[in-house]
Amino acid sequence: MIDNDKKQAAVVECRQLTKIYQKLLAGKDTAVCALRNISLSVGEGQIVGLIGPNGAGKSTLLNLIAGLIFPNEGSVAVCGHPARSIEAHRGLGYMPEHPVFLGRYTARAVLRYHGALSGMSKQAISHQTDTLTEKLDMGEYLDRPCTDFSQGMKQRLALAIAMINDPKLLLLDEPSNGLDPIGIIQLRNFLKELRAAGTTIVISSHRLGELEQLTSDYMFMYRGQVVSFADKPSGAHAGRLRIELVSDGKAIAEKLLPPSKVLSATDTKLEVAVGDPREVPDIVIELAKGGARMMDVTLERENIEDVFVRLCNEGT
Amino acid sequence: MKAYELIKETFCRRGYIWIVHVVWLILYGCFWWLFLPRNGTEFGQFGRFLFIWGGFFLPLALTAGIFGDDISSGRICVLVTKPLWPGELYLCRLLGLSLQSTVHFILAGCVLVILHLIVRKGSIEHLGLWLLASWLLFNTVATLSMSLSIVVGRTFNSLLILVVVVTGYFLMGLLGMAMSQKESSGVLTAFIRYPWPPFELLSKLASGEYEKYSLTVGRFSIAKSIACVVHSLVLTVVYSIIGIILLRKRQFSRQRD
Amino acid sequence: MKIKNKINVWIIVAAVGLIVEGWALYVVGESPEHWRPAMIVKDEPDARALYETMVKTLRELESLSYTSNCSGPDDRSSTYQIQLKKPNTFRVEIVNNPSPKITTFVGDGEHLWIYWQGSRPFLRVDDKESHAQSRSEVYIKKATTPDRNSISGRIDLLGAIWHGLILDPSTFHGYVDPLESTIDGVRSRGPYYYRGEECEIIEVSYMEAQRTRYFWISKEDHLPRQIKQIDRLAENHVRVEEWSKIKRNAVIPQHKVTWSPPEGWRQWDMPGPDDVLLKNGQKAPDFDLPSADGGRIKLSDYRGKTVWLCMWECGCPGCRKVLPDLQTFYEENKDKDLIVLGFNCTDDKKLAQRFIRETGLTFPNILDSTDEAKKVMLRDYRNKTQTLPLHYIIDAQGNVMDAWCGYVEGHR
After folding, report:
1. What is the pLDDT of residue C188?
2. What residues have CB less than 8 Å from A96, skipping those under 6 apart?
3. Does B223 fall in a domain?
4. Do B1 and A116 touch (CB under 8 A)?
5. Do chains C and A have 3 or more beta-carbon pairs under 8 angstroms?
6. Number of domains, chain A
């Protein structure tokens, strides 16, 4: 279980979730374990990105939190209530990967429909529609039927639907699908505003670059398990230190550095994991005292893509 | 406002729904105009047509994919994440259909009365009873179809009911003939009559058998008519409960990623 | 606590629902309608008096005309325009809705005339050839014997009508329905407003409730407005007769109750019920059917003996009279290679078994209300007019010796 150091009230609390997909009347050997013993706690105001290759279990986890499916083992709570309860859904906004609307409805009618389902009054819906229209730049097609919408418009409308009732928790599945670059920027800014307002957001996305700019925490998933849960500022790896030596690199690494820090070691090259760039001078001084004759020291900052690839490789 | 939007949705969800209503009304008129005799004194022949078309085929047309479409397309995922009890979703949609059918049958009654006055064909003696029976059957078939739509994808719920009912009654008829001399035929008759949409009971109600041709007179015949209505409504409630339970227990997910 | 209350509420709702549905199923179910002794009506003096007033009113009128619509749950109806005039004349025009073809009965006091506008319908006694030969411009002429042949009786015999009259119009002329002597009792079923008229409903049961009639009698003129008859056979048969356009003691022109055939029309002698039966010398069709005591009876098992085959039903007054006579005959001739064989293919099994027990019938009886047994009676034994009792005498070789329908007083 990964706890949030900041000790905030958990908006999402998952305990030892396991989800197995098995077809009706099919044998047990056809069962697929999508999630395996996952525990997660997301506090208020956090933006958590779910990252992983296809089949990692990201959407499954999202669906479990949204209450769309039930776990085989474990439990999910949203704002302290079971995931499929009305109380949990009161503070929940969900945006699916491929949003679908009633074709004959206009965007305004769709928002009114979903606002009504959320228990909002007419005035509240109207006010919220105006606000979201402005923020998501939907004014142009608000009164057009949804059958005329492009993918980007649909994404904006889906996001507006998720936001219509000012939810405390937002679950977004591939939110930037179909959005043009301007749309993506607008989305990013919008989500940042939400974060600043204290909305908790869980995003599942393949666009790692977008996530990097947006999220406060990552959850790397692989084959139904959480491989790593990292805060961006205090991540396990801020980067790697590449050191070129004259000789005896391996021996020096064994003698002076903890094994978990050593990413690779040869006689002339050393790669050391660095959690915080302020560790660099201490490492260099330690090696120098130990007799290492260093020719070149370079700090390579690891981006999310690097982490993703590395973790996937570690997983295989 | 929640209920209003859900009720409105049952009419607006598909473009063809209003077309279905209009076509059905035209069919009633055409049947009346073309097939009814000039000096007929009984409403029964037309009543049966109204009963089957309005009470059976109409709900199948209106409920095709009512949940199945939402589930196949994934739209249900957003609906289910709203602070909405599944029963609310089901019952409001049912209410929407029921209101549609009420307006439909009122309009049908008006059309038939006007036609009767203009062409002086047929008789409207039991029109009210046939409309009531058709409305009751509509509600029962609609709930059955809606509940089935939760587990059967797309619009196959209506097709499935049509095939099952036609095949089922055909087979039961054959079995009934084969077993007519045996005690177990009573069990078979009860099986056909009670758990399934009450075609036989409601048509007897509509044709006045419970009143005019009942085996009792006075207040006792009214009791039988009331019992038939009650049974039909109870069956509707039972189908609804099954549908709500299915909706609560069903899992909605398009991806397994 | 809240959850517990919620569960309790649901339990109560479910229990109420079950009770309500149970009541509905019980009332709607078929079983309460099977014949049972409690259906036999006990006489109530006031109701009996009202019934007799109705009959007396009918008989005391000088003229009566009304329209009677007779219908059943099969969605068919026949409409009768009836005009009755003392002492013994009448006119009845019958239409099987929605066909416009009218069958007219005219009784001028001496003869009964039956004729049709255009071609006549295919009757029960017809076959293709006879119908083709006597299809149009024909009439039937019979001598009227009011005691034996009532208007309803003649109409039923014709076999061209979907639903016959329940209350015989001949009551107006003094005819006494044979069922009168079989009345168990008359009781009141309360007041009722029938089409805006204040009526009293009385229930009359006949032959131990094998037949029940309900009369909606108008308080104004003591004439019926609606009559319902229930025949409790293997399946309950219900018929309803509705009266309208009633005119009492109005003038009925003489030409309405007399008729003579137009030029060129031919008299057609319609075959009677006896005429269509199997002829003497013809082979009696074999059958193998369940009996009243649970076994099976095969006609060919009686080869070598003379068989008196009698087809009957509990609700037939003539049958009820002839069966005790047959029982006596059977006992007297048991040792003489002569067997009486009863045949009942219309009645409820329990009802018929009770009747057999109470009447003390010891001769074998076939008791089977399936279609197979009905085919034997209607098709194999040619009871086209469905007249009962039907008698066949079959010799030791299995050939028909004699055949006749009905019961004649003193037939024994």
Report:
1. 92
2. A158, A173, B74, B77, B78, B254
3. yes
4. yes
5. no
6. 2
Question: At which residue do the structure tokens 């405390």 appear?
Answer: A168
Beta bridge partners of A25: none
Question: Look-up: residue for tokens 């004699």?
Answer: C402
Number of helices and strands in chain A (H, E): 10, 14
Chain B hits for A66, Cβ within 8 Å? 77, 81
> In B, which residues are within 8 Å of A93 by CB distance?
81
Which of C271, C294, C314 is the last residue in one of the domains?
C271
Q: How many CB pairs under 8 A join B and C?
A: 75
Given CA atoms C46, C47, C48, C53 in this order, what sign does their dihedral have? positive
Residue B224 maps to a domain: yes
A93, B83 contact by CB (below 8 A) = no
Long-range CB contact pairs, C76-81, < 8 A, 24+: C76/B42, C76/C162, C76/C163, C77/B41, C77/B42, C77/C162, C77/C163, C78/C161, C78/C162, C78/C163, C78/C164, C79/B41, C80/C165
Q: Which tokens belong to B227?
A: 């019992």
Q: How close does chain B come to C344, measured CA to CA in Å?
A: 16
Which single residue is written with the structure tokens 């003698």?
A255
Please tell me which residue of chain B has the smallest CA distance to A19. B256
Look at the block and give the residue holding tokens 């945006």.
A95
What is the domain-level CATH number for residue A259? 3.30.70
Q: Are residues A243 and A291 in the same domain?
A: yes
Residue C236 shares a structural domain with residue C341: no
The amino acid that residue B125 corresponds to is E
Angle at B177 between CA C298 and CA C366, to 5 degrees: 25
| CA distances, A220 to each of A61, A199, A207, A262 (Å) | 12, 22, 14, 22
CA distance B177 to chain A (A): 36
The DSSP element (H or E) to which C202 belongs, if any, is strand C197-206
Q: pLDDT tens digits for A42-56?
A: 888 888 888 877 778
DSSP state, residue C378: I
Question: A20 vs chain B: nearest CA distance in angstroms?
Answer: 10
Helices (H), C344-396: 349-359, 371-375
Q: Minimal Cα–Cα distance from B245 to chain C, Å? A: 14
CB contact under 8 A, C20 and B230: yes
Identify the closest residue of chain C to B238 by CA–CA distance: C17
Could you say which residues from 195 to 214 on chain A have a Cβ atom under 8 Å away from some Cβ of chain B?
none
Contact between C28 and B181 using a beta-carbon 8 Å cutoff:
no
pLDDT, tens only, A75-111: 999 988 888 888 899 989 999 888 888 878 899 999 9
Q: Which residues of B touch A67 (CB under 8 A)?
A: 80-81
CA A198 to centroid of chain Cα atoms: 16
Tell me, yes or no, whether A225 and A289 share the same domain. Answer: no
Nearest to A244 by CA among A308, A192, A287, A212: A287
| 0.90 exceeded by pTM | no
For residue B255, being part of any structural domain is answered with no
Residues whose CB is less than 8 angstroms from the CB of residue C150 and which lie 6 or more positions away in sequence, other chains included: C168, C170, C175, C177
pLDDT at B201: 85
* N residues, chain C: 412
Kindly report whether the peptide bond that precedes residue A259 is cis, defined as omega within 30 degrees of 0: no
Pairing between β-strand C111-116 and β-strand C102-107 as defined by DSSP bridges = antiparallel
**Does A206 share its domain with A253?**
no
Domain-ending residue, one of C225, C252, C271:
C271
Distance of CA B47 to the CA centre of its chain: 15
Terminal-residue alpha carbon distance, chain C = 84
Chain B hits for C77, Cβ within 8 Å: 41-42
C18-75, pLDDT tens digit by residue?
Answer: 999 988 887 776 544 667 777 888 999 999 999 999 999 999 999 999 999 998 877 6
For residue C92, give the CATH number of its domain: 2.50.20.10
